[in-house]
Structures are given as structure tokens and as C-alpha cells.
Specification:
By secondary structure, the chain is α/β, with parallel strands linked by helices. Helices cover 45% and strands 12% of the residues. It is globular and about 55 Å long. The structure holds nicotinamide-adenine-dinucleotide and zinc ion.
Length: 359
């Protein structure tokens, strides 16, 4: 079946656009129990952004630490219960941060209307009731979480997104100025997510003209940001990377990710490795699958003197490698896209283990 995907309702793009948040959400404040929830990356605590947050007296503001762990199902359940019991049903949710915060805001916006744990809704179209209005304000570029239909969560048995009609944001505020403080390694790891999305999107059987149009433009922007004469972190490149992230997300939404993301999910599940760096670790050993993409990636790593962990497998037990391979193998839609319908004839748990042993 051909994918039929809901898109974001509204997007504002440009330096300084964050200042429009108050006006943008104003008309929604009369809905439900008439208060907003702000989920903000705690990097911004005490910074200018906190002071300019348009939070009113009855609003709830949560500063969350996104520096150690990726979003968990338990964390979403606790936040949902706290919000509902304290203040009732919010008029809307605003997420301000990187991919982790985008996913938390998206997951919460549907979970405030569902019964039971978020683990019940990890998967495609398992959500029953429409979610509530939510706004995404990304502060790092690369994941495409700002535009995807999935809210990736790690639960007790799997890392899998809540994916449904109501997960995409109703409103995005794309203000590249918010990304200027991202530390260099993080800028690179998360930015590479976008580049890898496009390479994987184009290297598989679901690739199509729609994905190509967005993917080609996203790769071009990534090349300017990471390899061009004026490469590096600058206001101009922040704008470019923000658009690259959005377009990379749109490219893969209509196609699929591939081998790198399958392996990366294994690393994140077993070792808690963050998505951006996990992708970089995995992509670095995937010349067999993506020869040109990996060569260009290595050039970008060299150009920006990025520290990329190597020889990790030397410290891993066979049990850990097997577990990662099982997690990766279970992501059949990614292998199906990357290797073909008959992928099980070509890829086994042992071939995947071999890839992990190269890391
Ligand atoms: P992140 O949200 O995990 O944050 C990484 C670090 O950057 C944190 O320490 C955070 O505090 C810091 N940070 C954020 N903005 C900053 C700023 N402006 N200045 C300084 N520091 C800042 O980063 P990410 O790489 O954007 O997101 C990774 C997450 O996104 C993972 O949980 C992954 O599963 C998820 N993801 C989701 C999708 C999707 O489609 N839903 C796609 C890819 C990744
Ligand atoms: Zn990704």
C-alpha cells in the first residue's frame, strides 16, 4: 500500500520566530481545561529562552534532562498522570528542545487522551482517541522528529514509536537562532542523522520521486553545512541545517530508513547510546551497503575533527552483540527496504553480528 501521511498543519520559519509563540497559541487557550504545558530541554533553564517563555499562571512548565537517556514509556506515563491529576486536560502542549523533547511532546499530546500505559500504543495506528493540539520548537537540527509521524519511545521490551494520525505537530516554529548553542560534537552527530536519513531513503526499494525531491535538497544542504567552503556552525548554516532536517524527515517518511538505523536501534537499546552518535558509529562500518555515502561521511568527520568512538566491540560480550543483532533483525521494514523483499535469504543474525563486531 502507498503511504498516506498527515503533515504538519502550520510552519513558521526564520530567525527570531520564537517570539511569535505567544500569539500563535493564544486562540487555543480556551480549549479543554484552559492551560498549556511546556516541555523544555533543561539546557535552557536560567537562559534567555526561559525568561521569554509565554507561560501564564495556570500553565505547567517542565524542564527535562535530555542529556542522558532517550524518552521512555514510563516517563511519558508519569508525566501524563501528573498533568491530568494536577490540572486536567491541557489546551495544548509545546515542546522546546531536540529530538528527545519533540518525541516527548508528541507522545504526551496523544497519551493525555488514552487509557493505560504508552507501551500499549507503541506501533502503527494503535491509538484510539484523537490527541490534543501541540507545537514543536526544535533546538537542534537533524532528527526530522519535528515532522515525522512517530514519537520514538523505549519501553521495557522494545524501542518503537507511537505512530498515528495525531502524532505530527499542529504547529512548528523553526527558529534557527535557537540552535546556535549546540556543542560541536552534538551538532555533528544530530546533523548526520539528517544526512543518513537521505542516504538510506535513496538506497532502497521504497525510494520514489517525492522522497528524492526532498532528499536531494537535504543532502545538498548537508554538503554545504559540513563540506562547503563556509562549512561549520554559523547563523547561515543553522538555517540550512534546519531545513535539511525537515526535508530529510519528509524524504524518509515517504521512503524508509535502512541498515544504519536498524543497527543504531540495537546500540541504543542495549547500551543506551544516543540516536545521533549511534548512527555515526554504525554508519562508519557500512561501506558494503552505502559506499559513497560512507566515504562522504568520513570526509565530514575528518573535516570537523569529530571524535568517533571506534574499537567498541572489543569490550562487548557475545550476549550483548546477539541482543543488538536481534533488535536490529526485528526491524524487518528497514531490511525489506534496504535489501529487498527476500532479505531474510541474505541477512541473518550472524551477518548482523558481524557488522556489530566491526564497530
Ligand atoms: P536530544 O534531544 O537527545 O538532545 C541532545 C543534547 O543536546 C541534550 O543534552 C540537550 O540538552 C542538548 N541540546 C538541545 N538543544 C540544545 C541547544 N540549542 N543548545 C545546547 N544544547 C542543546 O538530541 P537529538 O539528537 O535532536 O534527538 C535524539 C532523539 O531523537 C532520540 O531520542 C531519538 O530516538 C529521537 N529521534 C526521533 C525521531 C522521530 O522521527 N521521532 C527521529 C530521529 C531521532
Ligand atoms: Zn534517525
Amino acid at each position: 500500500m502507498i503511504k498516506n501521511i498527515r503533515n504538519i498543519d502550520k510552519i513558521v520559519f526564520g530567525g527570531g520566530s520564537f517570539s511569535q509563540l505567544e500569539d500563535i497559541i493564544q486562540s487555543k487557550r480556551t480549549e479543554n481545561d484552559k492551560f498549556f504545558v511546556f516541555i523544555v530541554d533543561d539546557f535552557f533553564k536560567g537562559k534567555y529562552l526561559e525568561k521569554s517563555l509565554p507561560a501564564y499562571e495556570d500553565d505547567l512548565v517542565f524542564f527535562l534532562d535530555a542529556s542522558h537517556e532517550e524518552p521512555k514509556t514510563g516517563q511519558i506515563d508519569e508525566l501524563r498522570d501528573e498533568i491530568l491529576s494536577k490540572s486536567g486536560l491541557p489546551s495544548g502542549i509545546v515542546g522546546i528542545g531536540g529530538g528527545s523533547i519533540m518525541d516527548i511532546a508528541k507522545a504526551l499530546s496523544v497519551m493525555v487522551k488514552q487509557e493505560g500505559s504508552s507501551t500499549l500504543y507503541q506501533g502503527l495506528n494503535l491509538v484510539e482517541n484523537p490527541g490534543i493540539y501541540h507545537v514543536g520548537i526544535p533546538t537542534i537540527s537533524g532528527t526530522g522528529a519535528e515532522c515525522s509521524t512517530t514519537a520514538v519511545l523505549t519501553g521495557p521490551v522494545k524501542k518503537l514509536g507511537i505512530k498515528c494520525e495525531w502524532t505530527p505537530f499542529n504547529q512548528l516554529i523553526l527558529d534557527p537562532d535557537l540552535t546556535l548553542t549546540v556543542p560541536k560534537n552534538q551538532w555533528f552527530y544530530t546533523g548526520m542523522d539528517s544526512y543518513i536519513h537521505c542516504i538510506e531513503s535513496e538506497s532502497g526499494r521504497l525510494y520514489n520521486t517525492f522522497s528524492k525531491a526532498y532528499g536531494d535538497q537535504s543532502i545538498e544542504l548537508c554538503r554545504e553545512v559540513f563540506l562547503g567552503e563556509d562549512s561549520g556552525q554559523s547563523p547561515e548554516n543553522s538555517e540550512k541545517l534546519m531545513v535539511a532536517s525537515l526535508f530529510g524527515g519528509l524524504s524518509l517518511s515517504y521512503s524508509e530508513v535502512g541498515v544504519c538505523h536498524a543497527l543504531s536501534y540495537g546500540l541504543s537499546y542495549v547500551f543506551g547510546t544516543r540516536h545521533g552518535i549511534a548512527n555515526c558509529i554504525a554508519f562508519n562500518v557500512l561501506e558494503d551497503f552505502y559506499p559513497q555515502g560512507v566515504a562522504e561521511f568520513k570526509e565530514m568527520v575528518r573535516k570537523h575533527n569529530i571524535e568517533l568512538p571506534e574499537n567498541l566491540a572489543a569490550k562487548w560480550t557475545d550476549e550483548q552483540v546477539t541482543k543488538m543483532a536481534e533488535i536490529a533483525y526485528a526491524l524487518s521494514h528497514m531490511w525489506d527496504h534496504a535489501v529487498g523483499e527476500n532479505w531474510k535469504e541474505k541477512v541473518t543474525i550472524d551477518t548482523i553480528k558481524d557488522l556489530f563486531y566491526r564497530m
